[in-house]
Amino acid sequence: MKRLLSKTAVLLAICSIFAGCKSHDTATTNGLTPVRLQLDWYPQPEHGGFYTAQLLGYYKAEGLDVTLLPLSQYESAATMVTSGKADIGLASSDQVLEWNANGLPVLAICATMQHDPQAIMVHKDSPIHDFKDLDGHTIAAQTGAVWLKFVTAKYNLHNVRQIPSTMSIASFLSDQGYVQQIFVTNEPFFAKQAGAEVRTLMISGSGYDPYRVSFTTREFAAAHPDVVAKFARASIRGWLAYLHDPSATNEYLLKLNPALNAQQEAFTAQALGDGGFITGGDASGAQTGHMTAERWQATYDQLKSLGILNGSIDPTTAYSLKFVQ
Asked: What is the pLDDT of residue 1?
């Protein structure tokens, strides 16, 4: 959940394609088709639906043997998928559009989250109550944060200084004026544990609202549409089960990632459900996994207006709506 692909990594991935990437092996094992899912970070509750689908046998019921691969800070999901080291990866829809504009033939196959849980966090008494209030402030944000460029342009901000995010709240806790990019499913828990009273502004509330998605290469999707559809179906089922009862999966995640703790996991699972990040505005769960052409077009138009994309592409080539029915 905390990975951004640098331009260097993009170029390396492109080079790997032209150098001849490793072919995808979908030979069956014990009647099951192996699928390698490249996560976007170490195992955590934000991946809960995938682990639930694995634990409860939803992938196996679809004839799949899914392996979940953690991602270190020195790797990128795009490189892993396009080089053939993984079959499916996790990213955001704006990343997928950028990668396509940079020559990576990747395809989003379903929404992992209807809305990205990224936000900015401020102290309770901060004068910042809206994005327009960021003018004159310094914000710790991920390098190349597109949402910040969008907000700066939309609200006509002239004096916003960006410093690198450290993936720590130490500076936030020691500075009442600190503004930090965060995931609302994560950092607020630790801030409150440390006694800080905080407020958050969802980045999606600014109008910049990409999906979080599962993606593969266009080659893999064309060659194995049944595998992709089965993966999407089982993953959606896993997410709905996780939101209903995350306890067994959270216990398993503790074994995989000792850096987690049970209280943090409970906070994250609750935040995922309360925020509608997985299900969107439909509490029934009917829209889980679904994407719309309108949302993709809106994100594409925003990236184009900001000069983010290298040239023009047809945004409909970056995603498919057929795998989630």
From this structure: 59
CB 83 within 8 A of CB 13: yes
- pLDDT-based confidence at 191, cuts 50/70/90? very high
Q: Bridge-partner residues for 183, per DSSP?
A: 118
Identify the CA nearest to 146 among candidates 89, 103, 206: 206
What's the per-residue H, E or C state across the chain?
CCCCCCHHHHHHHHHHHHCCCCCCCCCCECCEEEEEEECCCCCCHHHHHHHHHHHCCHHHHCCEEEEEECCCCCCCHHHHHHCCCCCEEEEEHHHHHHHHHCCCCEEEEEEEECCCCEEEEEECCCCCCCHHHHCCCEEEECCCCHHHHHHHHHCCCCCCEEEECCCCCHHHHHCCCCEEEEECCCHHHHHHHCCCCEEEEEHHHHCCCCCEEEEEEHHHHHHCHHHHHHHHHHHHHHHHHHHHCCHHHHHHHHHHCCCCCHHHHHHHHHHHHHCCCCCCCCCCCCCCCCCCHHHHHHHHHHHHHCCCCCCCCCHHHHECCCCCC
**Two structure tokens written together for 188:** 């607020």
pLDDT at 25 > cutoff 60 = no
What pLDDT is recorded for position 78?
Answer: 97
Query: The pTM is what?
Result: 0.91
Find tokens 């500076």 and name the residue. Answer: 171
The CA-based angle 185-189-193, given to 5 degrees, is 175
Which CATH number is correct for 7-115+210-318, 2.60.40.10, 3.55.50.30, 3.40.50.300, 3.40.190.10? 3.40.190.10
Q: Is the pLDDT of residue 219 over 90?
A: yes
- The yes/no answer on whether domain 118-206 falls in CATH 3.40.350.10 is no
Mean pLDDT calculated for residue range 300-322: 96
Amino acid at site 13: A
The mean pLDDT of the chain is: 92
Q: Do domains 7-115+210-318 and 118-206 have the same CATH topology?
A: yes
